[in-house]
Amino acid sequence: GQAPPGHLGGEAFRNREGRLPPGDRMMRTDELVAHLRSTKSPWVVLLSASEFRAHSSWRTRLPDACIRVIDGGKCVTKRALFAEFKRQLKFPSYFGRNWDAFEECLTDLEWLPGCGYVIVVRAADKLLSKSENEYRTFLDIVGATAEHWATPSFLPRREPIPFHVVFVAPSSKMQSRRWGVPRLDGARTRH
User: Fold this and answer.
1) Count of Cβ atoms closer than 10 Å to residue 81 Cβ
2) In what order do the strands lie in the sheet with 163-169?
3) b/e string for 135-158 if b means 16 or more Cβ within 10 A?
4) What CA–CA distance (Å, rounded) separates 97 from 78?
5) Rounded distance, CA 162 to CA 41, Å?
6) For residue 34, what pLDDT is reported?
7) Which phi and psi angles does 45 have, rounded to 5°?
8) Which backbone phi and psi does 61 adopt, to 5 degrees?
9) pLDDT in tens, the chain (191 residues)
10) According to a count of CB atoms within 10 Å of the terminal CB, is the N or C end of the chain lower?
């Protein structure tokens, strides 16, 4: 197995020793990669677009992961979100375009093999911006999905698999909504 990765907790990224980094220190790329390789929560996190660009090499350090990019600008409504996820995650034709079917597809993904899953949502400030209730439902579903993947299965046998969603938003939009997820740099956001 792999070495135990750093963990995230509370409002901010904590290093391997469980300490918070200095307030103005951006996390290192290896810390981001360690988190994305782990099955530990939080599974949905927030990064500013500038922080995300600074970590541009993270993809090459997760060669066996299934990485998909979602355009939050194309996910303003629930219907649009379902269409974008269906397109980017190649949901099967029988996808029912409702929350139950969405969760079912996310907890299956047999058509997208990988040793882990990372969904990057760019322009995350626009994701379900028309409905706070739908946004909260989305957070609940991706959290439950990540917990599903992080839990070993015995029938059929499956080891824990990392599943993470990374929200990326312009720095100017970081305080624009109640995100309900932690930032990886330790800065505070509205909850």
Assistant:
1) 22
2) 44-48, 163-169, 117-122, 66-71
3) bebbbebbbebbeebbeeeeeeee
4) 9
5) 10
6) 93
7) -135, 165
8) -95, 5
9) 333 333 222 233 444 444 434 444 567 888 999 999 999 999 999 999 988 988 888 989 999 999 999 999 999 999 999 999 999 999 999 999 999 999 999 999 999 989 999 999 999 999 999 999 999 999 999 999 999 999 988 877 889 999 999 999 998 898 878 899 998 765 554 54
10) N
CA distance linking residue 124 with residue 104, whole number of Å: 23
